[in-house]
Amino acid sequence: MTDHRCLHFVLPLLVACFSTLAGPAAAADIRAAHTTDRIAVDGRLDDSAWQQAGHIADLQQQDPNPGQPTPYRTEILVLADPGGLTFGFICHDPDPTAIAVHTMTRDGRLRGDDSLALVLDPFGDQRRGYYFAINAAGARVDGLVTGPEDISLDWDGIWYAATSRTDDGWTAEIRIPAQTLRFPSGSDRWGLNFERVVARDRITLRWADSSRNAQLSDLRRAGGVTGVAMLKQGLGLSISPYGIVHVDKDEDDTDHVVTGDIGGDATWNLTSELSAVVTVNTDFAETEVDTSQVNLTRFPLFFPEKRAFFLEGSDQFEFGSGLGRDLVPFFSRRIGLYNGEQIPLEVGAKVLGRSGRWGIGLLGARTGAGEESAPANLYVGRITYDVDPHLTVGMIATDGDPDGISANTLGGLDAAWQTSTLGGDKNFSVGAWVAGSRGDVPDGRRDGWGLKIDYPNDLWDAALIYREFGDGLDPALGFLPRPGTKWLTGGISYQPRPDGGLFDWVRQFFFELYPQVVKDLDGRTQSWRVFTAPFNARTESGEHIEVNYAPQYEFLDEPFEISEGVVIPGGGYTFNRYRVELESAEHRQFSVASTVWFGEFFTGTLTQWEVGAGYASPGGHLQLDVAAENDFVDLPEGSFINRVYQIRAAYAFSPDLIIATDTQYDSESRDVGINARLRWTIEPGNDLYLVWTQALARPWAHPDWGLVHTTEDHLALKLRWTLRY
User: DSSP secondary-structure letter at 235?
Assistant: First the structure.
């Protein structure tokens, strides 16, 4: 589809959609009762202040049968004091022995667990907010609401939670300090919504808006909490110093080297909505290791950011609609990492938050020199403006190159229009973006642009995305795996819910058709793929069964060395791929999953088998997960097998004291990596970490089977404390 034809299709559709908008549904409100008592957050709700708290008598069923009664009555209590908000929950359950819990870890996976969640919208803009969740064992998960379908779990706030089992269910308390949040001073109403999940019956209960099209993250559908004008952020100063001791054993030496260091962060609330953060001599010893990935493509892999300093406020820098990982204008892993080498982050500073309708994200960092890079000053800025309740416009700019030598600047503009009331309760959005780069960049077109139309709803889920990336578009602080391409991606999913009959064992079907074509800038097809799901079902008991067919085309401009010594000749290749996927229900104590892709692959065949198994002890103290991927490639040019194995284990003495290990092996490097971490949260914001990392090089290929060749042996003890004023 050409640029003009795309616009001719889009504009009439937008006019038709806008003309069918309905007004928003009335939202519920709860008033937080004021108290001066200090609440002991122990999950038992036995403090006298709860007798006067604001009260919600019950939640209503949202899924699978909106508005229908359930035996899972849920009472919610709300208190406010100048220091923060406290929520109490009473979760009735006719069979408390069946309450499902799998984890106690911070930011652990709660899918499959009986859990509670709430979202807060302090700004009242119905766009961005905070997410807090706990399961019945008290495991805490938090994040930032970045859109009506998106919650980023990268953010870690300081808050308190505890749970307690009762004869008829479980109770919980959540305390959110005012200093943890950014909010407009004096506002007496914030957006608020609650959700409870009963895992074994796969029932979701919601406070405001029980439509199946409603996501908890859609703040346009939230209710509200009043009585919050009294909340105070204090001086708005937070200081987080750290001290660390490293013990290293050199690969060729038997001696251990002990070193120490100090550093830290400081946060200052410039206003009640806007904060400045400075980090000095930052250390990332406690950061989880990357998960090994197999790459059978000619394009670079994407590894997500895991470092705390860059995760905090990362939602402020999100840009463009429909980009996914095909273009990330600001990819924070470019800072402090260069060609696989860790580069010291000497100092960094951020300004994050809002000012009225403006959203502001500014970041600057100074990195040291590496073996292949010079010291570098790196900057990024992101500004958004809410034109009205539906439309947001923004811009982004980055400056600097991680190599410390080259010049690079990127700039971009974007806009997004969205509603949740199309035809009454349907979600619909349109977004567009344009970007360009300058400096020491390749010759060619240095710009790109894109458009996305999205209709994400329960029965029908459809989208249309067009993107162009110039061959000279080069975001040095970003991620762009395929420059010089034009993408047209679309698709539709029909998701009916059987009502009895032959398929009464199915909760919901997902019949999917998602075609994609990628061309170069001269219009020559580089890739195409048609992903289909002729059968995809979630059963009433929670199992997942899926069968897929995906014909595919790839054009190789030049020979492609897919593995060492295995070279596929240049040219065009069409091949058919098939998949069968089986997954057990997530609420079960034992879980298994298996996915097999098979069929043609370039000049031969490829079978990819992924299998996983997990066990969680009653109460969630012990978690064991084993995963394996085996890729069997059989080509006339050569055959090979890629294997990746992973074993994860965690034992939680409590949600605040956890030991976890992650062991990985991949056949390409034949290396084994072991990462073990103890985290003791003395109290939220004050943490002690003990981290041991060891790398074993080619242990099964060593000439002496009695020896293990250790390439890395590192132990770190880190104490981080937070002081708030």
Answer: T
List pLDDT tens digits, range 128-173. 899 999 999 999 999 999 888 888 888 889 999 999 999 999 999 9
Q: Which of 438, 444, 448, 394 is nearest to 416 (CA)?
A: 394
The distance of Cα 118 from the centroid of its chain, to the nearest Å, equals: 17
SS3 content of the chain, % helix, strand, coil (to 5): 5, 55, 40
- Looking at the chain, the domain(s) classified CATH 2.60.40.1190 span 32-226
Ramachandran region, residue 340 (left: φ > 0; alpha: ψ -120 to 50; beta: rest): left
**DSSP at 308:** H
Backbone angles phi, psi at 333, to 5 degrees: -65, -10
> What would the pLDDT profile of 504-545 be if each residue is shown by its tens digit?
999 999 999 999 999 999 999 999 999 999 999 999 999 999
4 contacts: CB under 8 Å, gap ≥ 6: none
* Phi/psi-derived region of residue 359, left when phi > 0, alpha when psi is between -120 and 50, beta in every other case: beta
Of 2.60.40.1190, 1.10.3720.10, 2.60.120.430, 2.40.37.10, the CATH number of 32-226 is: 2.60.40.1190
Cβ partners under 8 Å of residue 476, min gap 6: 334, 398, 400, 401, 402, 406, 408, 410, 437, 439
Residue identified by tokens 């198994």 is 613
Rg of the Cα atoms in the chain: 26
Q: Which long-range contacts (CB under 8 A, 24 or more apart) does 12-16 make?
A: 13/453, 14/430
Phi, psi of 238 (to 5 degrees): -135, 125
Backbone angles phi, psi at 17, to 5 degrees: -70, -45
Does residue 220 sit in helix, strand or coil? helix
CA distance 702 to 709: 8
Q: Which one-letter DSSP state was computed for residue 502?
A: G
Largest CA distance in the chain: 77
